[in-house]
Design goal:
This protein has a two-stranded parallel sheet with strand order 1-6. Strands 2-5 form a two-stranded parallel sheet. Strands 3-8 form a two-stranded parallel sheet. The protein contains six helices and eight strands; from the N terminus they run H-E-E-H-E-E-E-H-E-E-H-E-H-H. The protein is of the alpha/beta class and about 180 residues long. Helix 2 (about 35-45) packs parallel to helix 4 (about 95-105) and helix 4 crosses helix 6 (about 145-175).
Amino acid sequence: FAEALAMAYHRTHGIPVKLARIFNTYGPNMRPNDGRAIPNFIMQALAGKPITVYGSGKQTRSVMYIDDLIDGLYRLLMSKYNGPMNLGNPQERTMLELARIIKQQTRSTSKIVRKALPQDDPRVRCPDITLAKKVLHWQPRVTLQAGLERTIEYFKREIDNHEQNRLRNRRLAGSAR
C-alpha cells in the first residue's frame, strides 16, 4: 500500500520517488538476538551450542552483505529512476547450507539440529535484480565467504567486549564491599 501511495503521489505531483525493496541483509552491528538466521547461527556456533535449522533446511534465502546494500541504496537515490527497485543477492542458499558454512567458518564443533518450521516461514526468498543491473549498473560484489568472515569477527569482538565488561563489573562489585 505504501508503494502504491508513494507512486500515486509521484504521478500527481511529479515528486521523485525511490522505493527500495530490500532483501535479506547481514553484516556487522546486527543485534545478536534479533531472530534472523545469520546472527542466530553465528552466536550458536561461537557459543558451541546446537545450531538450529527450522524444517528440512531446504528453504532458501538470498543474503546480501550490508556494504552492497548501501551501494545499491546510494545508486538508487542518485538515479533518475522513480519506482520500486529490488536490492538483494540473487544467489540462493539453503538454510542448511548457510548453517554448515557458518559452522565451518567459525570452526565450531556445534551440531546442527532441526526444529519444526514456523507456519509463516517463506520457502523461497530470492530477488530479481535485472532492473537494478540495467538502471543502476549495480549488483552485489561481496562474496558470502568475505561477508561472513567480517560478520563473524564482529560477533567475536562483541562477545569478548561483553565478557570483559562482565568481569570488570564483577571486580567493581567485589571492591565496593
